[in-house]
Structure formats: structure tokens, C-alpha cells
Specification:
The structure is a single chain. The chain is an alpha+beta fold. It has three domains: about 60 residues, no CATH class; about 220 residues, Hypothetical protein af1432 (Orthogonal Bundle); about 70 residues, no CATH class. The protein is built from 14 helices and nine strands. It has a five-stranded antiparallel sheet, with helices on one face. β6 and β7 form a beta hairpin. α7 crosses α11. The longest helix has 21 residues.
């Protein structure tokens, strides 16, 4: 279950009174536990300045009924970046809960349905938050979350039955259950895989299926999608070298490849989203996955939301919406022509000769002077 939070102010907390619930920072990390009695005003003031957040359900049930004239109303806005941080924290707990046997199939399904709803609210914003996420913590959960969001968008575009769409999203969330700790380590490992690591990688689809069956998951599409997410037509994948793997698993494989190539690792630099989309189209756009690749290109565009592009003007801009054509995305400059970061987003019309897109850049090479989240929060589709 995703934890939605809202920020507290000084009117909500008092010295000498126990906290009504757990309090978090903006990244979803718990700072203060339920029942704690604050006894230092200076410490409380520092935490409030930093940002203290409580679950919205608790705010509405406890603070919302306080009757205080100082109590602020909850203003819920769609912030894909804050939402992503919260979702990562929740998913990380949920995945390790599955491995311990303390999480349930119902919790995974509820999480998947929440995710599908958010993706439908603003798919561009959700993809941008995935591509711009550079936090090092919970890399396994972050990758599965990104793949699940893309799978939700692609399955919907393909008009798959609702139940099938949900099953594929559940599979994306749980595909790497068999190698959660290894996945975190590999993101920092520059050396080749050791034999034991390679064995674990090849075994992880079956290990994930076993973990899911251990909490009574019996959805055949979900389980087979997890089992087959590294299979490839003509027996080129693993672990079973299937000649004709199912479309659901192939959709997840493509999403997996997309975000794996977009992520930096110690042994390689990331590709730009545009490079990845074009490479997948060349590699698989004419084969068994042609329809799936076409759906991906139509969903992400040539310049996916969240990627950085170089303009004819010399400026670097971030893409935040698809444009009237695949080559004219809606962008906002993040640097001027001299390479200096801009302090406010400046929208550029890429259909004009002066601002046509002439190239792409990896995020590590771009200096940004303002909060990119504001682009999607202030330009939300709904």
C-alpha cells in the first residue's frame, strides 16, 4: 500500500503530548515514531523546518477534527517526484515482506492498482520522475517501480484486458524478488559477475516465482510473466530458452531493458532515453515483439519526458511533454547557450528553427538550477 503524506506545521504538534502517528521526512524516511513525546522545542522547530510529514489518512482523522483555527487544510496535488519517493519506500518494504512471508498477495495487488491509477493520471510525469531519479537507495525497488509504470502505460495502450494489465504490473513489481540484495550491490560493482553471482542472476526468475507462490499467488499470467521476463524469441533468453515466450513477459522484458540501459552503473555509463528507444526499434521493431516496440515508441516518443536535449540555440532543455510531432517535444530550458543553469524554466518551441532539437544528453552532464518537479506539478494533465 502506498503511503500518501502531507506536511505538518507548528500548530499540529505540542511539547508534552505523544505523537499520534509516525512522522516522516519528504523522502518517506521515518523520523519520529508514534507515541514519542517531544520535549525539545528547538529540536521540533528544526524538524518542522526540514519538513515533517504524516499519512494523509491520519491527518484527516486526527488533525482535521482538532477544531483549531490554525489547522490548515490538506491540499493534495499530483507531485510525481514526491509520490515516487513514497512509492519506493513502500515497495521496498513490501518486497522484503514477501521474502519474509509477512506481506500478502492482496497488498501487492492494492499497490499495483494504486500505481495504475497514478500512471493514468499523468503518464508523462510518472515516466519523467523515473528517468530523473538519481537516488542511490533502494535501487531494486526503484527499477521494479519504473518498469511497472511503463508496463502499465504500454498494456493500456495495447488494450489488454484489465485483469491482464494488472497482472503484468504485479509481475513488474515482483520480477526481481530472487535477487534484491544482489541488484543493489551490482549497481556499484565495476568488476564482472562472479560465478556465484551469475548463477543467482540466472536463477532469479524461478526464485521470484517460488517466493510469490509462498504467499499464495496463483495468478498464472503474473507468475509466467515473472518466470519469462528474461526469455527471448528463438531460445535466446533464460532460464528456459523458450522459442516463443508470451507477450506479457516480453513486454516486461522490454521495459526492463529500457530502464536498465538508462541507469548508470559502475561498469558503464547510461544511454539517453532517445538512444534506447531507437536501439530497441532497430533491434526488435521487426521481429516477434514488433507490436510491443511500436507501442513503446508511441507511448514514450522519440524524446521521452524527462530526457535532456540540446537545442540549436546552444541551450540544454528537459522534455516534459510530447509535442505535435515526434521530433518537436515540449521542452523547458535548464541552461542558457553558455551552459550556465537557468534559475527558472523557460519554455522553448522546438518547431522553430532556433530551438530545434539537435541532440540528446545524459543527466550526469547537465547542470540544473531549479526544481524540475515544478514543471510537472504546475502543468499537470488533470
Amino acid at each position: 500500500m502506498i503511503i500518501e503524506t502531507c506536511r505538518l506545521n507548528s500548530s499540529h504538534l505540542q511539547l508534552g503530548l505523544p505523537l499520534p502517528g509516525d512522522l516522516y521526512d519528504e523522502n518517506g524516511k521515518m523520523l519520529l515514531a508514534k507515541g514519542l513525546i517531544p520535549n525539545s522545542q528547538s529540536q521540533l522547530d528544526k524538524l518542522l523546518e526540514r519538513g515533517l510529514y504524516v499519512e494523509i489518512s491520519l491527518f484527516e482523522s486526527y488533525f482535521g477534527r482538532s477544531g483549531s483555527s490554525k489547522t490548515t487544510s490538506v491540499q493534495k496535488k499530483f507531485d510525481p517526484f514526491l509520490l515516487r519517493r513514497t512509492m519506493k519506500l513502500s515497495l521496498n518494504r513490501l518486497l522484503y515482506g514477501v521474502m519474509r512471508g509477512s506481506a500478502s498477495m492482496a497488498q501487492l495487488i492494492e499497490f499495483a492498482e494504486d500505481l495504475q491509477g497514478y500512471a493514468e493520471t499523468d503518464g508523462d510525469a510518472m515516466i519523467a520522475a523515473c528517468l530523473l531519479d538519481r537516488e542511490e537507495e533502494s535501487r531494486a525497488a526503484a527499477h521494479s517501480l519504473s518498469c511497472a509504470i511503463l508496463c502499465a502505460l504500454l498494456a493500456k495502450r495495447l488494450h489488454w484486458p484489465d485483469a491482464c494489465q494488472r497482472s503484468v504490473v504485479c509481475a513488474a513489481l515482483t520480477m526481481n524478488l530472487g535477487m534484491l540484495d544482489l541488484q543493489q550491490r551490482l549497481s556499484h560493482q565495476a568488476s564482472p559477475l562472479a560465478p556465484a553471482q551469475l548463477e543467482l542472476v540466472h536463477a532469479h526468475p524461478d526464485a521470484a516465482v517460488a517466493a510469490l507462490q509462498g504467499i499464495a499467488v496463483d495468478d498464472s499470467i503474473w507468475l509466467e510473466c515473472v518466470r519469462q521476463h528474461h526469455e527471448k524469441a528463438e531460445g535466446k533468453g533464460y532460464p528456459r530458452q523458450l522459442a516463443a515466450p508470451a507477450d506479457e513477459g516480453q513486454l516486461l522484458r522490454l521495459a526492463d531493458v529500457f530502464f536498465a540501459r538508462a541507469s548508470a552503473r559502475s561498469d558503464r555509463s547510461p544511454l539517453t532515453p532517445t538512444q534506447i528507444v531507437r536501439a530497441l526499434f532497430v533491434e526488435e521493431g521487426q521481429g516477434a515483439c514488433a507490436a510491443l516496440v511500436t507501442a513503446m515508441v508511441k507511448t514514450l516518443g522519440v524524446y521521452p519526458p524527462g530526457c535532456f536535449v540540446k537545442l540549436a540555440s546552444g541551450e540544454v532543455a528537459v522534455v516534459f511533454r510530447c509535442g505535435d510531432s515526434p521530433t518537436t517535444p515540449v521542452v523547458a530550458s535548464v541552461t542558457n547557450a553558455s551552459g550556465a543553469p537557468t534559475m527558472q524554466p523557460v519554455r522553448r518551441d522546438t518547431s522553430r528553427e532556433a530551438y530545434v532539437v539537435v541532440g540528446t544528453m545524459v543527466p550526469d552532464k547537465v547542470s540544473v538550477g531549479y526544481d524540475l518537479a515544478k514543471l510537472w506539478v504546475s502543468n499537470a494533465k488533470n
